[in-house]
Amino acid sequence: MDYILEGFSIAIGLLLSADEETFSAVFTTLRVSTLSIFTSLLIGIPLGFILGYHHFPGRRLARTVVDTLLALPTVVIGLLVYAFISRRGPLGELGLLFSLKGVAIGQVILALPIVIALTASAVEELDERLRQTLLTLGADSKGLALSTLWEARYAVLIAAITGYGRVISEVGISMMIGGNIKWHTRTITTAIALETGKGQFGAGIALGLVLLALAFIVNVGVSFLRRRATA
Amino acid sequence: MTALMELHGVVRRYGDRVALKVDHLSLEEGRIVGLVGPNGSGKTTLLRLLAFLDRPDEGTILFRGEEAQGRREALRREVTLLLQEPFLLKRSVFENVAYGLKLRGEKEHLKSRVDEALRSVGLDPARFARRLWFQLSGGEAQRVALASRLVLRPRLLLLDEPTASVDLHSASLIHEAVLRARRDWGTTLLLVSHDLAWLYDVAEEVVALYGGRVSERGPENLVAGPWIQSKEGVLKRRLDDGQILVASGSADAKALAALDPSSVVVSLDRPQGTSARNLLKGTVSQMTYENASGRVLVKVLVGGLALTARLTDHSVRELGLHPGLEVFLLIKASAFRWL
Predict the structure, then answer these.
(1) DSSP assignment, residue A177?
(2) Contact between chains at B100 and A154 (C-beta distance less than 8 A)
(3) Nearest to A136 by CA among B88, B112, B125
(4) Does residue B51 sit at the A interface (CB-CB below 8 Å)?
(5) Disulfide check for A106: which of A18, A35, A81, B160 has CB 3.0–4.6 Å away?
(6) A139 touches chain B (CB under 8 A)
């Protein structure tokens, strides 16, 4: 038991002394996850809106595919992306393997189904009275679409935050595509896996605490927005 | 007066069921029209057609004499509908009221127009303009919803039981505000209201819908079954207090019978020797002035049933009618019409 308590005291020390190696992993995580989530939102919100708002042939099938992709394991994404961007792969020329951009590609594939599915649900679940209200106030089809998305904004933000929570806590993609390179592609999660393997519980716990704090902030955000969305 | 809207041979179906069938209906410009009818009679369907939210399966709708088909989006800016349940956009009160004006690109004097609209429904702009949609009571939300329509100065304002789910104070402010819109800008009003006393008082004309069809006789009494076929070839309906209502014709047990209020005769004493098959004892419960006909509607409770008689004010005075008075109703068995 002692080594766990000792780990905690080392962890507090590392965090308070702003240990460079620890904070390098934290900043790497923030950088790559921010890039991933913004790219996912840019692609995912329009696609999710189309899926939830328009009735087109094949919509049900598209919905099923997206829902299935929600369960994609990170190691499978890692495997696929690795195959494409490794030297021998079709995108090998771009030199994306063991880079943060490569990790971001994998994380976008991870977050995209979440953003699309939750945005689509948010738009679908809007009250029928919203449509009638917008039309009776004189909205044309463009105004109707834009105002509908704006009405769903809190639920769309929940989608964004949920996707972000998934991205910062994943380890498979970061490990396989990033390669856990110190000062370069080492993220919080890959560092924890490594430090634990080395028996360095202090560093692992320190990073674990940072991750928990991030997760806490994310969840406070979600619960606040959820209250707004349903008010 | 010219017709603002006219419906010719309009039919709206949901699946196989005909929800509405209107041979002809005309809304005169600047009039206050009441719309009454039991649940499922097609009131909401008619409102949706008039608001251009829905299109008819058959027939034509004219707006100021011109075919509406093909320019519904533009016409939706002339006509607006206030829904029964208060519903606001997830924005501030100010943004809710300004929404329609912004869509129309009318950004001049935006603030003063929004403030004026809020005041017209009894909301102080200084206190309410910046509130968010969830910081309002149901009645306040409905008044904001009305303000967001009044600010557009529509040619036609459709109100679908706007006071059904709000408090009395809000209901009276809503009533005042819609009447003011007619007075100030000549807005044509079509009102559906559960507050029949108010509706009959303000409406210059009342359209009654039964089973998706417009009744030519205006609002009628409705008597639901169970009807019992008797040996004498008439239908009988037993009332709660044991009295029996007799109607001629043939219909099934669950049929709905309509009774024109003008064919109900009120008497103070039990009349002797009458040809009417029905002689029912009841109590006057309410008396309402019917603006459209200039008559008085006298509601009489008879064994759990409310029957309305349409009388002249002269008769009301002559008989000395007042709520609480016991009276007799005379109704011919042939006065019932089967729906």
Answers:
(1) I
(2) no
(3) B88
(4) yes
(5) A81
(6) yes
Model confidence at A168, pLDDT cuts 50, 70, 90, reads: very high
pLDDT, mean of residues B49-71 = 91
Asked if A154 reaches chain B (Cβ–Cβ under 8 Å), the answer is: yes
Q: Chain A partners of B103 at a C-beta cutoff of 8 Å? A: 137-140, 143
Domain membership of residue A121 as a residue range: 2-230
What is the rounded average pLDDT of the residues B39-52? 91
B contacts of A227 (beta carbons < 8 Å):
none
Which domains occur in chain B, in start order? 3-215 (3.40.50.300), 221-338 (2.40.50.100)
Number of domains in chain A: 1
Give the residue from chain A lying closest to B151, CA to CA: A137
Query: Is the CB of A137 inside 8 Å of chain B's CB atoms?
Result: yes
Shortest Cα–Cα distance, A224 to chain B (Å):
14
Q: Does residue A87 or residue A78 have the better pLDDT?
A: A78
Closest approach of B162 to chain A, Cα-based (Å): 14
> pLDDT above 70 covers what percent of chain B?
99
Beta bridge partners of B136: none
Residues making up chain A, counted from first to last:
231
Displacement of CA A29 from its chain's centroid (Å)? 11
* B145 reaches A (C-beta below 8 A): yes
Distance of alpha carbon B239 from alpha carbon B254, whole angstroms? 15
Give the CATH number for residue A148.
1.10.3720.10
Express each pLDDT in B276-305 by its tens digit.
888 899 999 989 888 888 899 999 999 888
Model confidence pLDDT, tens digit, residues B187-221 = 999 999 878 778 888 888 888 888 888 887 677 88
Q: For the whole model, what pTM was predicted?
A: 0.79
Three-state SS letters, B225-243: CCCEECCCCCEEEECCCCC
Q: Determine, for residues A138 and B103 on separate chains, whether the beta-carbon distance falls below 8 Å.
A: yes
- Best of B90, B133, B134, B144 to disrupt the A interface by mutation (most A CBs within 10 Å)? B90
Tokens encoding A12: 């507090």
ipTM: 0.78
Distance from the first to the final alpha carbon of chain B: 33
Instruction: Give the orientation angle of helix A153-169 with respect to helix A141-151, to 10 degrees.
Output: 50
Q: Is B155 on the interface with A (CB under 8 A)?
A: no
How do residues A7-25 score in pLDDT, each as one tens digit?
888 888 888 888 898 899 9
